[in-house]
Write a structure and sequence with these properties.
The protein is of the alpha+beta class and 287 residues long. 26% of the residues lie in helices and 33% in strands. It contains six helices and 14 strands. The strands form three sheets. Strands 3-6-2-1-14-13 form a six-stranded mixed beta sheet. The protein has a six-stranded mixed beta sheet with strand order 7-8-9-10-12-11, with helices on one face. β4 and β5 form a beta hairpin. α2 packs across α3.
């Protein structure tokens, strides 16, 4: 039976309309699954955490306030897929979004613990009477236990502190610290902060200390940490004879991975456009 051209046109439009409705419904139900928003991409692995590098640890001051997006921050972390990440200048809401993007877009699953010291509406959003929490965070592919959070007695121009957790790194229990010391030109404040931090680190035979110390390697205030641990970069020493790679846009080394009872098998400093601090990671092994 022949169908008149007008009827065929109407029928064709109806078919295309139905197909479009079905497609929109699928997007609404499933959501885009590829980083670009494309509808079709690989399924997430059943045990996605196995995709991380099991002995890789990273530290990164993600910069706040900065204009970097959490999608870009997650992509930068996923590029190196560390087992363990210490973040500084981190808002809880941002960390949750970064963690979500790592899972949905990159198939990397992390546990999270927080060491927040401030509630700051300007930095972290929320409402004036309920501002977001701000400070440090640790993401780990392995579960974390015994979280300990300390606010330094004197934070300097802004409250500062450190956090510690116990987790597995390459199958062995390690105490992991993450800190952010007082801002530049506050040497006496940082000296007291490192004294407090070092007293805790000294209690553990195996420890990894991550963070933004706001001090160059030969700064006197870092002496208590150098007395207990070595930098992940074997060429970086607490003297003018060391050759330490810079970790900030202003060409200073402020970011560290200190190792105690742990050795580095390799390390890397990676500049990024998403923060004024570079990504710093090390592949480690227990002694």
């Amino acid at each position: 039976m022949r169908i008149h051209s007008e009827e065929a046109t109407v029928l064709g439009r109806g078919t295309r309309l139905l197909a479009g409705v079905v497609m929109v419904a699928c997007v609404a139900i499933v959501g885009p699954s590829a980083p670009s928003g494309a509808l079709f991409a690989r399924s997430l692995p059943v045990e996605a955490a196995k995709d991380v590098v099991p002995n890789r640890v990273m530290t990164w001051n993600i910069c706040n306030p900065c204009e970097g997006s959490n999608v870009d921050r997650a992509a930068a972390i996923a590029t190196y897929a560390p087992q363990l990440i210490g973040l500084q200048e981190a808002c809880v809401r941002d960390v949750e979004r970064i963690r979500g993007h790592l899972k949905r877009r990159h198939g990397l699953v992390y546990h999270v613990e927080y060491g927040t010291v401030l509630r700051d509406w300007d930095r972290c959003g929320g409402m004036p009477w309920s501002p977001g929490a701000y400070g440090q965070a640790i993401l780990s592919a392995a579960p974390m236990t015994d979280r300990h959070h300390v606010e330094y007695p004197d934070g300097g121009s802004e409250d500062r502190g450190y956090m510690a957790v116990t987790t597995l790194v390459k199958g062995r229990h390690v105490r992991v610290f993450n800190t952010h010391l007082a801002q530049r030109r506050q040497e006496a404040v940082r000296a007291e902060q490192t004294r407090v931090l070092a007293a805790d680190v000294a209690q553990h035979d195996r420890a990894i200390v991550l963070g933004d110390f706001n001090a160059v390697p030969d700064a006197p205030e870092l002496a208590p940490i150098w007395a207990l641990a070595a930098d992940a970069d074997p060429q970086c020493q607490p003297s003018s004879f060391g050759t330490c790679k810079v970790t900030t846009d202003w060409q200073s080394k402020f970011d560290y991975i200190f190792l105690r009872g742990v050795v580095a098998r390799g390390h890397r400093v990676q500049p990024t456009s998403h923060s004024d601090h570079h990504l710093l990671y090390a592949d480690v092994d227990s002694t």
